[in-house]
Design a protein that fits this description.
The protein is an alpha/beta fold. It is 43% helix and 12% strand. The chain has two domains: 141 residues, HAD superfamily/HAD-like (Rossmann fold, 3-Layer(aba) Sandwich), CATH 3.40.50; 57 residues, DNA polymerase, domain 1 (Orthogonal Bundle), CATH 1.10.150. Strand 2, helix 7 and strand 3 form a beta-alpha-beta unit.
């Protein structure tokens, strides 16, 4: 395969930017409070429910939809409110240079809602670097690691799995990508690498220097 024929599928949070310092704590707190209100439980029980659904289904929302009939649009709107999102987005400005150097088409493939994902990309000045942005609404709430979400993206963009490289901080999501026949890149500091991961990098910025390994 020529370099230009390769297609890159990038996760957003903790792949293209660092959501851990500010954004994830805010979202996790908002989700916990939503569950408290919804189910009438205390903070500790709501936190356990949030974590259990995330571990089992890939997102807290999936569990709430499945077991409690939650309206996904309401949930996403309530849990992704930010008073000052630009201050919360942590990223390296070298990301733009890296993406420009990377041959092939590029898509964002995220379980995040559209309004949030596009806002983050605009804050970073990166939206124009991508050929498309696939978010949980476009996936019809068949979020990663569900194979249905992957297949919807592939079908709509007319892509073959063998063309694609999934770049992601979640090993579970990469397992689905590999099952479909994609190459996989794990962004993580931990040295342990699952068998379905082709390449582990500490930073997405290192990607162009390791293309020969893919």
């Amino acid at each position: 395969m020529t370099a230009a024929a390769r297609v890159w599928l990038f996760d957003l949070d903790n792949t293209l930017h660092d959501a851990s310092p500010h954004i994830f704590p805010h979202i996790h707190r908002s989700m916990r409070e939503y569950i408290e209100r919804l189910l009438g439980v205390d903070a500790a029980e709501a936190a356990r429910i949030r974590e259990r659904y995330w571990t089992r289904y890939g997102t807290t929302l999936a569990g709430l939809m499945r077991h409690h009939g939650v309206d996904p649009h309401h949930f996403l709107a309530e849990t992704h409110r930010f008073e000052d999102l630009p201050r919360m987005v942590v990223f390296d400005r070298a990301l733009g240079t890296m993406l420009a150097r990377l041959p092939g088409r590029k898509f964002v493939f995220s379980n995040a809602p559209t309004r949030y994902a596009t806002a983050v990309l605009d804050i970073m000045g990166m939206r124009h670097r991508f050929d498309g942005v696939w978010t949980i609404e476009r996936l019809r709430f068949e979020q990663k690691p569900s194979l249905a979400g992957f297949r919807r993206l592939l079908s709509r963009e007319r892509l073959r799995p063998a063309q694609c490289v999934m770049v992601e901080d979640s090993a579970a999501n990469l397992k689905s990508a590999r099952r479909l026949g994609m190459k996989t890149v794990l962004i993580a500091r931990e040295p342990r690498v699952p068998a379905w991961v082709d390449l582990r990098l500490q930073s997405v910025l290192d990607l162009p220097r390791h293309l020969g390994k893919l």
